[in-house]
Structure formats: structure tokens, C-alpha cells
Amino acid sequence: MANNHPHSTETRAKISASLSGRTISAEVLAKRIGRKASEETKAKMRIAQSNPSPEIRAKLRAARSNRDPDSAETRARKSAASRGRPKSMEHRVNMSKSRLGKYVGENNPNWKGGQIDDGYGYECIRIHPGFYLKVHRLTMTQILGRKLKNGEIVHHINKNKMDNRPDNLALCSDPVAHGWCRSEDAKIFLGNAGAS
How does pLDDT run across 166-187, given as a tens digit for each residue? Predict the structure, then answer.
């Protein structure tokens, strides 16, 4: 049988000895590595693995029954180890209270002054936790001195959604009026108001 290893048996013995710090004879090393099973032995191993004898099956069953990794005792031990020491209900409530509101608003390291972009290019400002209002609608509310009615649309004359100056905003009563504000005729009519 040909040996496909790139080093001779003596060279492998020297390499192994230098790595482990002890001397191994070439004969012992040849027994440990470099031996391949014959085709007959491989066939026997395949048969034994695919169709074990009744004695082997009984041994495997006994080994499996003696070892139950998911028993109630094992689960309890693993659970206790992952949780750390048990905590009383009072302790858990106190821990929850200590974290409550700790990283909300200005205390959050990602706080950007309460102003965000809503994803459509409109600047929004935080009114209270969890509620943001578009700045152009807030500006128009302050100009009019009243809340905007349903359907009223605030138009940016220069089409820059981040430019929320009062002289750049026009109030449209409905979507049809807003369509007119966006037309060429409106550019002539509103041209002076949007010039900057």
C-alpha cells in the first residue's frame, strides 16, 4: 500500500518529537498516522454503522438511558446558572424602577435636540415623548393663531421641505388648491413671496 504523505516516516517522527518534546520511534509513528483502512475493512465498518447487531443496539440503548441531559434537575441547574443568584420580587421591582426613564429624551446618548426627519424630508419636532409634529404645520398654526383644519395643507413655496420660514409657507384649503400652488400659474402669483 502506497503512503500518500509528503514526508517520510523518519521526518514525521522528527517533526512530531520536536513539537511534543519527546522522542517517538518511526515504527510507533507509522502505526499512529498514515495508515488507511482497506476496502474490506471500510465495507465492514459501513455495515456495522448502518445495521448494528442486537448486542450493540442494547449497549447504545443502555448508554442513552443512563444519560438524560434534559432531566428536570439538569434544566433547573442550567437555568439557575444562567440567571445568577435568585432575586426577590422586591429586588426585581427596584431594579426596574432604577432603569425607568434613565435613557429617555435628553438623557439618551443619541439625543439630537428633539428634531428628526420624518423620512419624507419634513423636519419634525418633539412635542412630548412619543409625539412629533411637523415644523411647517406648527409654524402655520402659530401664524394663523388657530389649529389647522382637517384637509388643510401647508405648501412650501420654494419646494425646500426644510425651509420653514413663515414667508416661504402658503396655506392650501384642500388637495386641489395644493395642486394649483404647485402649478406654473402659482409660481407667477406666489413668485414674490418665495423669492429669497
Answer: 998 988 888 888 887 777 666 6
User: Is 13 strand, coil or helix?
Assistant: helix
Q: Is residue 180 part of a domain?
A: yes
Report which of 129, 132, 139, 193 is spatially closest to residue 164, judged by C-alpha positions.
Answer: 139
Residue 32 lies in a domain: yes
The count of structural domains within the chain is 2
For the residues of 57-117, what is the DSSP string, one character each?
A: HHHHHHHHHH--TT-HHHHHHHHHHHH-S---HHHHHHHHHHHTTTTSGGGSTT--TTEEE
Domain that holds residue 186: 136-194
**Would you state the cell numbers that stand for residue 86, as one nine-digit string?**
435568585
Is residue 94 included in any domain, yes or no? no
Tell me how far apart the alpha carbons of residues 61 and 173 are, in angstroms, rounded to a whole number: 81
Q: Which helix (H) or strand (E) holds 128?
A: strand 123-128
Span 81-92, pLDDT tens digits: 666 677 788 888
Output phi, psi for 176, to 5 deg: -65, -45
Domain contains 68: no
